[in-house]
Every structure is written in structure tokens, then in C-alpha cells.
Amino acid sequence: MTTLLILDPQADAYNAFVQNADLPGLQVMLATDPSELPEDTALAEVVLASPRLLVGALPRLTRLRWAQSTWAGVEALLADGLPRDYLLSGVKGVFGNQMAEYTLCYMLAHERQVIQRSDSQRRGVWDHRIPGKLAGKHAVFLGLGSIGAECALRCRHFGMRTSAVTRSGSPSALVDKHFSVDQLAQAVIEADYLVMSLPGTAETRHLVDAQILGALPSHAVIINVGRGESLDEQALVSALEAGQLAGAVLDVFEREPLPPGHALWTCPGVIVTAHTSAVSFVEDIAPLFLANLRRYLAGDKPDYLVDFARGY
Fold this sequence. Notes:
The protein is α/β, with parallel strands linked by helices. It folds into 2 domains: 2-93 and 280-297, Rossmann fold (3-Layer(aba) Sandwich), CATH 3.40.50; 96-272, Rossmann fold (3-Layer(aba) Sandwich). It is built from 9 helices and 12 strands. It has helices at residues 11-20, 51-57, 96-111, 114-122, 146-157, 184-187, 210-215, 233-241, 282-297; strands at 2-7, 26-31, 46-49, 66-69, 87-89, 138-142, 161-166, 177-180, 193-196, 221-224, 247-250, 270-272. The strands form 2 sheets. Strands 8-7-6-9-10-11-12 form a 7-stranded parallel β-sheet, covered by helices on one side. α1 (11-20) crosses α9 (282-297). The radius of gyration is 22 Å and the shape is elongated.
């Protein structure tokens, strides 16, 4: 008998998928918050949970062998002092479509001047400014995992030129040019858009700093759907206020929620979204978990295992 704990605000919905999978020898416990954990939580060998909730439950999960995150970001589980004696699976291949839609949405909004034209309409102004177009524009992707790759593919469909900056700098058929991280300043010199989809690690912290921002053209726009820590926010504010960049679309921040009064709320050219570029829909996460659960029950290692040392 394998005991599964589902710890998530949508635990009932996840459980419906598990029950329909008809997996023999599986006992399921449900909780929507660590304060609601059942008395026999210690029996759980497998956990499906959002990372922040799992942190609060770890002290009671003395038999935990494998945990599946319902989020892409698992940083909460990597903090010093937390147990690392279990397998942890992240989420891959699920959020690419949503983040590609988000990225293209704001690229198109920038080129077609959607926000400016909406403002003109409210003021009763016939706005006859010539819009831009995506065809021929250059998108540089900082990170080419499943998210960056899907975004790059969609950009190509719009006739954009594409480059990628990765740790290895290895060639990829998904983009026209390839750069290693130490070539980042060179890679962004001709960028119209810099799309960031990096994990939050010590290596990526403030990777885009004042030097990289200064290397971008003044018409460039930054789109960050990865982790806020990878972008030096104070350097970004300074660059935008000085007119060194055209704008930034930010879904992630060094501190979330973004504090009231923070300069990014009113900084020229900034669009703030509240970490909503991709959402963990149960119907997307459950099939991935069930495929991994079947591997685990068969004695195989689950997919998308996180390297605790690397942080992803």
C-alpha cells in the first residue's frame, strides 16, 4: 500500500483525477493547508503539493520518498535547513503555451501601441501614429528550456529573428543564433526584445544588471516570466527613468507581492502583472503527475527531478 498526500488548495480536483486513474494499492489523503493535515500524515510516502504548502508539512512527513510540485518554481523547498532526503519533481512541458501567449500578447501590444491607443480613445483623440510590427524584429531569449523554447517557436511564426543565451551556448534548431552566458552583453546588442525565463538560483541572481541593461538598444523591451531575482530591479528603474530602454513587462519580482510605493509601479514603460503569466491548472498538472506516479509505483524514477544543489 502506497500512501499519497495531496496538499493543495485544489486537492479535491486533483483527487478526482487520481480516482479516475484507478491505481490499485493507493491510499489518498487530502489537505488544502498544512493546518488541516490529517492525523496519519506521517504515513505519506508520496506527496503532490504546491511548494510553499509543502514546506509547512515537511516536519510531519517522516516517510516521504517523492514529492511532485504543482508549480514550476520550487525555490521554497530549497531553503537552507530543509530536508533534501527525498526525490522532488518539478513541472516541465506544461507552462510553455501559456507563457508564449503572454509573451506574444505584450509584444503585439507594444508594437500596435494598444495601451496608448486605449488612452487616446478615452481622451477622444484620433490617434494616427504608425504602429510597429513583429516581423523582422529580434527576440533574444535568456534561457531556452521548455518555456523559452515554446516562446521562440511562436516568435518565429510571426517572422521574428531569434537568438538564445544559455549556460552551454549549444546550438539549437529553435533559434537563429546561439550564445553562452558569458556572451550575454554581446547577444543583446541588437535585441528588440529580451525574454527572460530563468530559474531562481545563485548563478542567475542579477544576471541582467546595469551592464547588460546598458548594452541593450534604447528601443528594447524586457519581458521577464522567469524569476524576479535574475533582474536587478534598481538598475532597471534607473535605466527606464533615464530613457535607456523602451519598457519592461514584469510578471515576477524580487519581492512578491510587489510592495506598495515601489518605483516599478509607476516607472515609465513598465507593465506589472502579478505572477500570472502561467497558472497551474489542475487539468494540465494532473496528467503529468499521474504519468510520474505510474513510473514511481513501477519502481522507476519519476521525470523532471530537481537537482537540489543546482536549484532546478
